[in-house]
């Protein structure tokens, strides 16, 4: 692909960052404090704006309810816009209330179930106020022991609950159903795999789609295959980008297997123009406990840009020809050659053209912003 | 459950054994020869009949085409019936022809694809001749390297191919779609998970269902959950029973985790009366390279009987009450108590009642059959 | 084995319970509160004594420093003894201090490393005061990203640190080195597998051994094999018993694969008389967030008793004969028959003989203790 | 690192190719025939020489006994030398003889065990004749079912057997012990992990080391960590390079996770100068059933060269500084920047300097050699 077209596409390739990615996080053993970690949604937007200032590749900020709850949603929307950002996907929280210990949207207790539904409906209301089009639903429900729950019964209740949520969505809104292999439940998850999420989304209708989190699969799972099948069936709605070596490690994007990330983009390009707005929600979702949060986010944005650029280099016509000939070696070489190409100079040139420093991480670190927030936020 | 009802249910609980389970098998490193291993479908039926003679728990023999191909299908059907058995599911072979190296039902080459479709249609014809109602399709298709194939394109071709097969089925026939995580392909499988198989079965219609092989999942997968979701959606069509510790090890049934097998039966009981004919195809599919074949099959039949019996002991009403109270401990205890109960005396009593020796494995070994076939078959 | 001998062995089969198993726990998403959860080491001993009251199978309580730190260790020791218990293994905490963010015993920072060593040495002091013979060391150290640390350098520092600890041990004390596949670190763990723990223990000397936690392995790992190899090399020092389906799920013992647990006991019996004192430390280590804590502990104790009893039923002489003949089927049948035997009546009889109720879980629940502590502890 | 030094190092960076990598291979389901696949050791050396002709990066050919057995070893040695190659590691075969069904070096049957020992001793003899210094031992021994074997007993027999082999080695010879997680045995492997191999090598002495095969680990295993620990303990003896996504897939090198391969080289560089002769045995071991064999081998050689080159770019001094500061982000950036650099131009320049075409794969394909052997070998 021509370098000018590459740069052009890159200029309009934007991703969403999560508000919660700028706050302290950790494991069940310890949450380590990062000096200056954001304490509320306004500080989170400040930090997201920093990521955008140095990369110009952030479109919006995903919010999490109730962590990011404010009294005045219009004010929040404007605050984001004044920082060059939109409010992106709205993420309900169904895991931090004692009531949800044995299930939320799947609870056998009607009251608890209704409470959970109401919370998600509250999120739909918030979407309307902040002009968000994406409801991103991760369901932590599941069981820890054989016998604890009835899978099919819970599945039916989940579908019922989701229908109520679905019906509240405007026509241009999308419900993203996220699946996860395990954690926090350790025997079964009510949406444990893409099959479940797909079946539910299919039952619900066109406004329901599936969102893939890179850390939510069994070891060995071919994620790019899932991307392809869901996309070809019109049911891929979004991504939670991060990395993992073991379980849902939530490491920064591209830190464990850049080739896999690249292959995912190769598939995405077949179905979407990722430089346009007509694309799945591309959201970073990470918990980089060991790294300064804004640096970690800049790293992840850059990894996505690099993977996207490399994926555009794949000569799809030649690839198709190799596939027709069953020439496995030449097909793989086409893919690998794209991946092996160093696209960082193209990235740097693009940055210069749009008036930002070609080295965002370095520039941000030198800016003194981290010291400032460490001081101000205590 | 009352012991008499237990015994009654056990008497009509029958499973299918695979013709290929009586022949030599092995790994890619070595096929070890078992003296007396069956060399053709008639010898395989002889051996299956031995398993049935000593257990009275075999309904039918799954056949594999072309391994079990004969000139006169009517003769084969009668041969089976004379041995107290039916011909069960018919299994096409799409992996042993050089033409299928790069795909069979998914091949980009129309000629190869048509050849594969024709082979499956041939199997449908055979079904009509031997009065089989189950077409059991395992698709080995997949790719070994990134770039080798186009997932979505292959998926579309697969659906097209399957439609042609589906249309050839009688109304009372079922197409079972088997999925597999990996092997023989090492980068992607065209039907890699239950989600794919379910989506295809849903597209095709009511005659298409999913078959679960216990060795075809990623490590950690909760198989009983899949049983439940597929069953509640009317799409569970059958089982390939075996065991594994690592990959598709194809060990004898129940040899690695009897608790998992029991939990699968607990789920099955919620949707089916396994002592009746209205149930999924319950087929043993193993490759017990280290064990004498008939002994291995008797072990597996017995493991299934034991797991089934134990599963019937679960007090489902009490369980439901515990679940409503969120009493995780008592719910689990109900399950575990059923599992911990020794049902072998019930099994032995049932055997006496139907006139067979209570110790089938021992009785078979003493019968001298193995020496006889070792001598006769060379 | 004769039932009387079985019962005799069972009477002196004792396990250790962890103080931390009686307090609130959870995942990184949420710690759910259990009414009456113990708040300090004295309440934890009270609760452990309840487990012992109803099972008579608890020898001691593992303590965790600083969670269980007291001013007067003599008082604690006597408090335990007055409740019929000893203080068991002492467990240092190297994961909850901000200083240890980038390593404790492996830190490049000498000051931090010395602090960690000092903490472990403090634990050795405590051992002397409470008459504990087992220092049980789980090292959370590791890295999250490639480049973050130098594996070999950290390994060398770890060995150095451990030498200082080792030298402080009395001759009759044991240092148990625990390994873990991943978590809290997500790229590498400094003691990631039994190979590392064994190599370190070998370097250190006879007082150093390895402790196995059932949740700390890669999926598929044959744990009973590790038991056998470590035991035969004189390096198995103890167990952390729990269950898992996915990662380090810390579920109650025996809840996922009772057969595996049984097979572990079969191996242990070859090297140790578990009914005596000359055995590895057998410690329950679980985090049963969804279950009332004392009930969960009683379940786990009972699972261990059942597995131990079943393992004693294995006819080792016959097994050895089958192995010599390469009779895989009969060898497996010997193992499976032991496992399939219902030993609960033997367990119940033993309980009657020693004067406790044959149904400890039920009896405990009915005792009203849980309501009492919920009220008293708030 | 200076480009000239890079090229210099690259010029003397040589790997070993396996004789068996030029012959037909497959899965347990099917061995697909590649036209022109080598039929004997002389044809295999011819093909290896082709790989070397176009890459100049092959030092030697690993041989497998008895597959590569010849009457006149001197003739074979000269044949290799005339083709610019040495005979590399000698690999005994302990898996294709009926006698070894239940074990070879671990067999309870003394006769079988002696036969296996004799076979390995025969390989030591061959080493002396072909001037090979590396005995590369992969042990397929293991069991399929609980009860089948006694782990500790087999371990002891294995050590005894290995001692006899060890004693027959000249002082400058190395015994490499290979471990494997599973396959062909499906319950336990007698050398299942690096811990076992290390313990055995330690018991044996300095001439015994461990060889790592990239496909022989549980999912998620951090292999570069094992490289580091074994190297720092003087026990890393060699590599079998290949790729896998699932199990021991034996795909071409670098086809699944190039970053992991690079990180392995980063570790190796800390302990060895891979451009010298004083290094572990670097052997390709693949079974590229879907690819023309020589093309596949050229791809793998190139992947190793690229990974090695990238690994040399790591600024180890700066990395060490970042590690000291606990600056996780800058440490990772140093690593990632090396990986993201396109080293292919350096590789091409080096090739021109030593007088070969910069595009070996393309040049080989155009050479017509494949057509020639397809014709000649039938």
List keywords for this structure.
homotetramer; 378 residues; alpha/beta; TIM Barrel; 5-stranded parallel β-sheet; 3-stranded parallel β-sheet; 14 helices; 47% helix; 14% strand; globular
Main sheet: strand order of chain A: 6-8-10-11-12
Mind summarizing the main beta sheet of chain A? Answer: 5 strands, parallel
State Rg of chain A: 21 Å
Helix count, DSSP H or I runs of 4 or more residues of chain A: 14
Number of strands of chain A: 12
Unreliably modeled segments of chain A = none
Q: What amount of the residues of chain A lies in strands? A: 5-15%
What's the CATH architecture of chain A? Alpha-Beta Barrel
Q: Any idea how many domains of chain A? A: 1
Order of helices and strands of chain A: HEEEHEHEHEEHEEHEHEHEHHHHHH
How far the N terminus sits from the C terminus of chain A, by CA atoms, comes to 48 Å
Assembly classification: homotetramer
Report on the architecture of this protein.
- With 378 residues, chain A is of the alpha/beta class.
- Chain A has a single domain, classed as TIM Barrel, CATH 3.20.20.
- Helices cover 47% and strands 14% of the residues of chain A.
- Chain A has 14 helices and twelve strands.
- The first copy, chain A, has a five-stranded parallel beta sheet. In chain A, strands 1-4-5 form a three-stranded parallel beta sheet.
- In chain A, α8 links the parallel β11 and β12.
- Chain A is globular and about 60 Å long.
- The model of chain A has no long low-confidence stretch (mean pLDDT 97).
């Amino acid at each position: 692909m021509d370098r000018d077209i590459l740069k052009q596409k890159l200029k309009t390739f934007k991703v969403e960052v999560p508000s919660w990615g700028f706050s302290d996080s950790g494991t069940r053993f310890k949450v380590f404090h990062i000096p200056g970690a954001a304490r509320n949604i306004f500080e989170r937007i400040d930090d997201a704006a920093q990521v955008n200032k140095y990369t110009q590749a952030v479109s919006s900020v995903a919010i999490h309810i109730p962590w990011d709850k404010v009294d005045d949603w219009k004010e929040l929307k404007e605050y984001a816009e004044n920082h060059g950002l939109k409010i992106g996907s709205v993420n309900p929280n169904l895991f931090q209330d004692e009531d949800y210990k044995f299930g939320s949207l799947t609870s056998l207790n009607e009251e608890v179930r209704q409470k959970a539904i109401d919370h998600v409906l509250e999120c739909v209301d918030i979407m309307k106020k902040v002009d968000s089009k994406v409801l991103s639903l991760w369901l932590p429900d599941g069981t820890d022991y054989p016998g604890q729950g009835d899978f099919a019964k819970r599945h039916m209740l989940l579908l019922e609950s989701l229908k109520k949520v679905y019906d509240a969505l405007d026509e241009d809104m999308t419900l993203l159903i996220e699946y996860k292999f395990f954690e926090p439940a350790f025997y079964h998850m009510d949406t444990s795999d893409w099959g479940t999420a797909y079946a539910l989304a299919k039952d619900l209708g066109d406004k329901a789609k599936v969102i893939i989190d890179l850390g939510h699969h069994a070891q060995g799972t071919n994620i790019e295959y899932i991307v392809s099948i869901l996309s070809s069936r019109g049911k891929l709605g979004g991504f939670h980008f991060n990395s993992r070596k073991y379980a849902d490690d939530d490491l920064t994007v591209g830190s464990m297997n850049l080739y896999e990330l690249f292959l995912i983009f190769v598939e995405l390009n077949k179905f979407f123009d990722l430089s346009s707005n007509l694309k799945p929600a591309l959201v970073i979702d990470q918990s980089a406990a060991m790294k300064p949060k804004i640096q970690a986010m800049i790293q992840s944005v850059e990894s996505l840009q690099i993977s996207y650029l490399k994926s555009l280099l794949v000569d799809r016509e030649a690839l198709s020809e190799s596939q027709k000939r069953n020439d496995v070696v030449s097909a793989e070489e086409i893919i690998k050659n794209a991946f092996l190409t160093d696209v960082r100079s193209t990235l740097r040139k693009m940055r210069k053209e749009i008036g930002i420093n070609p080295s965002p991480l370095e520039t941000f670190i030198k800016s003194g912003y981290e010291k400032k927030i460490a001081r101000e936020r205590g």
